[in-house]
Specification:
354 residues; mainly alpha; 12 helices; 1% strand
């Protein structure tokens, strides 16, 4: 627990005090946000706001993780390093996308195919490496199985598993990207999901099959270090949100949204709760679905279901203030997180009573 606290504290401090420095540097270099002309009119005032703030989140998370393990002399694990590598790799894909937008002075960065290819490569490497490197108990960061509250069903094979993980990672990172349309919305929602993974990983540590041979124990590798990663990312997002909350002084950009989607997917894989992420990240799922529904409806019928997608912009166009949307969506995210954590605990409780 000490490692978790140190990692979160260091990451929070770095993000909180490092973000103003990033704001000054990005503003001096002209790294300002470009606004789509077809977007809500109120967004015109955000033009020029420094972007690529996700670099602060990634750096603070990495530094917090290292500091937590060094200060408490805890060894860094394969699971923790893999999740951080996934976060960093997707952050780099987002960074390239953001840089192209700024360099070309357009709201369009990487082509969708190129961005998806980058996500697929990073995701595939993560998936393959997660199946390798067993520890002394023969546990790897992931098994070639599906998981909800723990692994279930038969082994599906390496190739289907890798394909599934690539789809999952691309879906999670793009869903967070779509949610990042209002000041603080994606950051606040990610904080809630990350807090859930701190709790889940710590619970798995307390009920680890390698030290507690009881029926409801968890066959999960490196739960403590996974909790440290989640805590470091949580602290970094907390510090960043101070400056990203409405009215935002800086945006995370694709650098941050892809990185956060990646760390959430990685935590889900390494805690063997892949399908539970659909519930924990319910807000991200709803917003992604709103885009799918809008595009599908327009292509099939020529009509739009929402005034604008993603969903948060629909509510802007019907007159909701931005702060109201952000807070209400945070509440929805909190309800989904509460449901997901509740299901996780109830499953353990039901087995403990047998």
């Amino acid at each position: 627990m000490k490692t978790v606290i140190v990692a979160a504290g260091v990451a929070l401090a770095l993000a909180l005090f490092g973000t103003p420095l990033a704001i000054r540097v990005f503003r001096r270099r002209g790294y300002g946000q470009l606004i789509r002309e077809e977007g809500p009119a109120a967004h015109a005032t955000k033009r020029g706001t420094p972007t690529m703030g996700g670099t602060v989140i990634v750096i603070a998370t990495l530094a917090g993780y290292v500091a937590g393990n060094v200060v408490t002399r805890q060894p860094m694990s394969r699971s923790g390093l893999l999740v951080l590598a996934l976060m960093t790799g997707l952050g780099l894909v987002g960074f390239v996308d953001d840089f192209i937008k700024i360099y070309r002075q357009t709201s369009l960065g990487l082509r969708s195919g190129a961005k998806l290819a980058g996500q697929a490569v990073v995701g595939a490497v993560f998936a393959v490496e997660a199946l390798r490197g067993p520890d002394g108990f023969g546990l790897t960061p992931a098994d070639a199985q599906l998981s909800f509250l723990r692994d279930f069903g038969p082994v599906i094979g390496v190739l289907p598993f890798v394909i599934f993980i690539v789809i999952m990672i691309a879906g999670a990172s793009n869903a967070v990207n779509l949610t990042d349309g209002l000041d603080g919305l994606a950051t606040g929602a990610a904080i809630l999901v990350l807090a859930a993974y701190v709790l889940i990983a710590n619970w798995q540590l307390r009920n680890d099959c390698t030290s507690l041979l009881t029926k409801p124990c968890y066959l999960v590798r490196d739960p403590q270090d996974v909790a440290v990663v989640a805590a470091a990312a949580l602290g970094a997002c907390f510090g960043f949100l101070w400056w990203n909350a409405p009215p935002a002084k800086i945006f995370m950009g694709d650098t941050g949204s892809l990185a956060l989607g990646g760390v959430l997917a990685g935590l889900a894989v390494c805690t063997r709760t892949m399908l539970l992420l659909v519930i924990l990240g319910g807000l991200f799922v709803i917003i992604a679905l709103s885009v799918i529904i809008q595009v599908g409806s327009f292509k099939l019928t020529g009509r739009r279901v929402f005034r604008m997608a993603p969903l948060q912009h629909h509510f802007e166009l019907i007159g909701w203030p931005e702060t109201t949307i952000v807070i209400r969506f945070w509440l929805i995210a909190g309800l989904f997180v509460g449901l997901g954590v509740g299901l996780f605990y109830l499953q353990w409780l039901s087995q403990a009573r047998l």
